[in-house]
Amino acid sequence: KHQKVSQRPLLSSNILPLVSKRTAPKRTMRASSILSLLLWSSAISTASAGLFKKKHRRQKAGTKYEPHGEVHVVVNKVGPFNNPTETYRYYSLPFCRTHADESTHKEAYEEERNIALEEEEEEESSASYLRKLEIKGNRIGAERHKQRLGESIVGDRRETSPYELSFKDDIEWRLLCKTTLDKHDIIKLKEAIHNNYFFEMFIEDLPMWGYVGDIEDEDEILGEVEGQSHTYLFPHLHFKLGYNKNQIVSAAVTTERDRRVDITNVNKPTPVQFSYSVEYFEDDLPWRMRMTRYSDSRFLPGSFEIHWLSIINSFVLVLLLTAFLTIILMRVLKNDFSRYMEIDDSSMEEEESGWKLIHGDVFRFPQFPVLFCASVGTGVQLTIATLLLLGLALTGMISTTRRGSILAGMVILYCLTTTVGAYISTRLYFQMNGKNWVRCVLFTAGLFPVPTSFVFMWVNTVALFHGSTSALPFSTIFTIAAIFALVALPLTVLGGIVAKNYANHDFNAPTRTTKVAREIPTEVPWYRSRFVQMVVSGFLPFSAIYIELHYIFASMWGHQIYTLFGILLFAFVLLLVVTSFISVALLYFQLAREDHRWWWSTFINAGMTGLFIYAYSFFYYFHRSGMTGMLQSSFYFGYMSIVSFGFFLMLGSCGFHFSLLFVKHIYSRVKCD
Fold it and tell me: Are 193 and 218 in contact (CB under 8 A)?
């Protein structure tokens, strides 16, 4: 609906070479080559004109202002409040791009004030007012700003604005521009207001939000009813800026209902005066703590009072569950060890039973070893990258309040840790007597990026079709692709080469594997079936992070700024521990029923929490959020599938490694023929 119509340059017919029938083939080929060169040059120049258009230098935060120094207001985007991913350029709505001059402002100010004074007093007051609020008119809106990688990833499109603010100078009222909204503009604004659009601006990288307009007396079922409901536009903005010495430490913008304009009738051209006012106040908030105020904003609902209590409650439950499983498992294993170690020669002829019976098959390598090793290696890589990201965020080395810094940091850390993933997968592949290690490296390199790329292509296409700023620009896509091609791929190959030449290729199994696989019992109780194991192994770890998951979703798919990374790191480590214990406990029950196919089952059981997270995303979408529409749904369910897949790999690899240590330990403690 906000799609731009691109105008392609038309090629004049007189530049086409006239080729007669008598022209030699060489001349024809030469002429076609010249034509192709001209076409390519035109296309490249046209693309370069839009792609490499000069952008404004970004306004760095932390500026120390002189008195009456220029303060820049940077506009970003607009969009439905309930759909945080569905955002559009700020100037996709008919807002002012230039500032009114002094004469126009003076006329509007006199109308606004409606002062009935004597002629001499009026001239004196008007002259003093204009001296105090001198309008330069040198700021033009809708010109792009340079952005960081993270800002482009999250859909920011920062642009200049014509607002003229100066440090510590209050403005009672100032005209921004006068315009008459035609039918097309009113329809745009009404559609935005009915979809609960908000706008976003920045001053000193401090975000400010406000609503475009409001609706009165709208029927919940029928919507706007003619003669009863009204749609109002908010043309006046009031900036409230707090300063500490010579720095701006807080910023907020509000709209005034008293100055609203009725735009209910789309067939009637409506004159509108866009205006603004500025208020400065002294604030004792330190500049480094300037983001702490946003927990009180109406756009950022704060509900962290019960946060610590919920986490402690989950921790106690998980601790009791883990202790319960550990005690039971240790008692059962102790009895098994006592029974197996006290077998004398007279009882050797008796038939063995339980997990010792399959000692010749338990270390039989799984099917699809390349895929299995790549999954384990990628899971370890994602786990290390996540722990590093949370550690850097906790120590402040990655700014948690800077827009998009977490996503950009995850992209960089993923590329830097590809060596670890390739090393783990290739080493395990050689320990399984694998020969085609290059295939294993390639699988490891593409196991996570390839599904992510497919999801990205889909959601980016949907965003481009809707004209949303959520569609990544070509420069950002090129940057990420270059980082992956020039950093991630070489490091992946390096990890595979190091594992091939220097890693230990011996599996060191405590028992020998027989040539013929033992038959697996088919009659098992329903509570020991594979499906029940998968449900139990996914639900118990999920219950440990359920409370924290709500706050993470509110931050990812809402307007919440998440800053409790210490709690998040604790919850993530707790999740890894619980998943490992549950995987080992279920593995013991699987081996006890003489089922030696534990490799893939352990990995899948441990990773089932990722499937529960994806199931919870449906519950959150339909019952805890107001998100609607094709664009928002594509982004939400598409990227949540990638997040859930990442958790599946991380938890699966964690559960597998602990299970492998457990299996090697118990079979090294008993005597086996």
Answer: no
Do the strands 236-244 and 74-80 form a parallel or antiparallel pair, or are they unpaired?
unpaired
Q: Tokens 């406000």, residue?
A: 210
Neighbouring residues of 641: CB distance < 8 A, sequence distance ≥ 6:
455, 614
Distance separating alpha carbons of residues 231 and 215, to the nearest angstrom: 5
pLDDT in tens, 488-523: 999 999 999 999 999 888 888 888 888 887 888 777
Q: Which residues of 284-295 are buried (b: 16+ CB within 10 A; e: fewer)?
A: eeeeeebbebbe
C-alpha to C-alpha distances, 598 to 433, 523, 556, 638, nearest whole angstrom? 18, 17, 36, 31
Specify the pairing of strand 236-244 against strand 230-233: unpaired
The H-or-E segment that residue 618 falls in is helix 599-623
pLDDT at 461: 94
State both tokens at 253.
């913008």
Residue at 143: amino acid letter: E
Pairing label, strands 70-71, 165-166: antiparallel
Q: 586: how many CB neighbours lie within 10 A of its CB? A: 25
pLDDT-derived band at 77 (thresholds 50, 70, 90) equals very high
Residue carrying the six token digits 């970003």: 76
Higher pLDDT, 625 or 378: 378
Q: State the amino acid at position 403 in one-letter form.
A: R
How far is it, in rounded angstroms, from Cα 390 to Cα 606? 22
Round to whole Å and give the CA distance between 460 and 469.
10
C-alpha–C-alpha distance, residues 504 and 427, integer Å? 7
CA distance 427 to 437: 9
| pLDDT tens per residue, range 213-242 | 998 876 555 555 555 678 999 999 999 999
Cβ-based neighbour number of residue 7 at 10 Å:
7
Angstrom distance (rounded) from CA 484 to CA 486:
6
Count other C-beta atoms under 10 Å from residue 71's C-beta: 24
Could you write out the three-class secondary structure of 54-71? CCECCCCCCCCCCCCCEE
Alpha carbons 303 and 148: distance in angstroms, whole number: 30
Q: How far apart (Å, rounded) are the C-alpha atoms in residues 442 and 370?
A: 10
**Edge-to-edge order in the sheet of strand 261-262:** 213-216, 230-233, 261-262
- The gap from C-alpha 562 to its chain's centroid, in whole angstroms, comes to 12
What is the per-residue pLDDT across 28-66, written as a single tens digit (0 to 9) for each?
A: 344 444 434 443 443 333 344 344 456 677 767 788 899
CA angle 154, 651, 354 (to 5 degrees): 165
Amino acid in the structure at residue 179: T
HSE of 611, CA atoms in CB hemisphere, 13 A? 13
* Residue 145 to residue 132: CA distance in whole angstroms: 30
Residues 6+ apart with CB under 8 A from 586: 533, 536, 537, 602, 605
pLDDT band with cut points at 50, 70 and 90 for residue 340: low
Which pair of tokens denotes residue 390?
Answer: 């949370």
pLDDT score recorded for residue 15 = 30
Q: Are 189 and 233 in contact (CB under 8 A)?
A: yes
H helix runs in 4-113, sequence order = 25-51, 102-113
Q: How far apart are CA 569 and CA 193, in angstroms?
A: 40
Average pLDDT over residues 426-449: 93
DSSP string, 123-161: HHHHHHHHHHT-------SS-BBP--HHHHHTT---B--
